[in-house]
Amino acid sequence: MRGVEVKRDAQADLYRVIGCLIVVAIHCWQSRYGLDSSASSIAISCGLADGVAIFWLLSGFFMYKNYSYRKTMKRTIKTVAIPTICVSLVTFFLINNYLYNGVIGVEWHGKDEIIVASKTLLSWSNPILGMGHLWYVYVYILLMIWSPITYAFIKYLNEDSRREKCFLILSLAFLVWNDISDNQLLELGHRGINGLLPAFVETVWGSLVYKYRKKFSKQKYGIYAVLAFVVLNVIRMVIQIYRNSLYEGFAWILYWFSSIGLLCAVSMAIFCFSGIINCEKKTFYRVTTKMVACSFMIYLIHPLIIAFLDRKKIIDMIFHVCSILEMACLKKICFVVISTLLVTVLSIVVTEIIRFMVQIARYILTQEK
Predict the structure, then answer these.
(1) pLDDT > 70: what percent of the chain?
(2) Looking at residue 1, what is its pLDDT?
(3) How far does CA 252 lie from the centroid of its chain?
(4) What letters, b where the CB count within 10 A reaches 16 and e where it falls short, cover 50-79?
(5) Which of 10, 163, 183, 225 could hold 279 in an S-S bridge, CB 3.0 to 4.6 Å?
């Protein structure tokens, strides 16, 4: 999701692909291990916790270069809002009828259901069963409406490096404070202003990370970034295990708006910009470019793919195949890797089919005119 057309950046594309795979992986993971509170499961959950933070940082990479509010909103409507509306409607009236009722055909919802869905939508929340991940899209659209303020703030910071440092220190300090308070200080979340505030902060962080990306162009920074990612997640895992000793349930420290979530996303950005992976290799570049082109549609439809595979017992089959391995941690890693690759590939295939059908529809409409 970008505000304006820009020249492709292979390293930023790699970062987007990593974010996309993490988002798919965490949802595959939750389909089988979401309630598992063992140490190995907490470790994996920590490693897969920051896909959304990556996408907020990415929003700050390019959007505010040659910024235009008109172009930003036009692109948001065309590439984000319209696909989301289409997928939501098809899911509400058709797909969910099969996934939850086993019926192939249109489900005509009653008046009460329509009223409840409408009220939920008016509160700017997702009303579609099984599409809870769309909270990100709703917050993203708010962020785009808010984008002139973000642009003005970034422009203000860029005038003086001391302002940039002050923002980074203060924003991180407030996130740490919020984590210590168990999210009681800021009450951050996944909807409305509770989601907009951390999205705004992470977008500004993204603009600054991208501005100074060349400072991290040496491969040693890639090694430092990996070490930082590991250390941060060990700290996060210890906090979560301690939280589990007090009561069951995930701590806010696992969410994208935590201080550790932000720093892990920044670490992955530095890893991509370090050049430790050659993003210019032809095959590698073609794969990442294809995934980037499909990334938003992958985000929209991958939970439907997971639900379909679950209904067909394919997720169970992957789970049982991986259970052959003796070590519990290896079983879980094997499951998440195989299921993530399968769901991602199927999402790309479905995306290409949808695009082909749209092209045919456009051609037919053009011929009729």
Answers:
(1) 96
(2) 45
(3) 17
(4) bbbbbbbbbbbbbbbeebeeeebbebbeee
(5) 10
Q: Work out the percent of the chain whose per-residue pLDDT is above 90.
A: 74
Q: How far apart are CA 297 and CA 266, in angstroms?
A: 24
Which alpha helices (DSSP H) does the chain contain, by range? 10-33, 39-47, 51-62, 69-76, 82-90, 96-101, 111-122, 135-145, 147-158, 161-180, 192-211, 219-246, 259-273, 282-311, 314-322, 328-368
Judged by DSSP in three states, 139 sits in: helix
DSSP string computed for 237-251: HHHHHHHHHHSSS--
Rounded-to-integer distance, Cα 279 and Cα 317, Å: 34
Q: What are phi and psi for residue 291, nearest 5 degrees?
A: -65, -40
pLDDT in tens, 309-348: 999 999 999 999 998 988 888 999 999 999 999 999 999 9
Q: Which residues have C-beta within 8 Å of that of residue 69, sequence separation ≥ 6?
A: 147, 148, 151
Question: How many CB atoms lie under 10 A from the CB of residue 133?
Answer: 17
Residue 136, classified by CB atoms within 10 Å of its CB into exposed (0-12), middle (13-18) or buried (19+), is buried
Contacts 24+ apart (CB under 8 A), 212-215: 213/11, 213/269, 213/273, 214/273
Residue type present at position 294: C
Phi-psi region of 84 (alpha: psi -120 to 50; beta: other; left: phi over 0): alpha
Instruction: Specify the pLDDT at position 248.
Output: 60
Nearest to 4, CA basis, from 84, 80, 64, 85: 64
pLDDT greater than 50 at residue 5: no
Q: Please list, in sequence order, all residues whose beta carbon lies within 8 angstroms of the beta carbon of residue 59, skipping any fewer than 6 positions away.
A: 1, 140, 143, 199, 202, 203, 206
Length in residues, the chain = 369
What's the rounded mean pLDDT across residues 244-265? 84
Tell me the per-residue pLDDT of 38-62, one tens digit each, with 9 for 90 and over.
888 999 999 999 999 999 999 999 8
Answer yes or no: are the C-beta atoms of 351 and 301 closer than 8 Å: yes
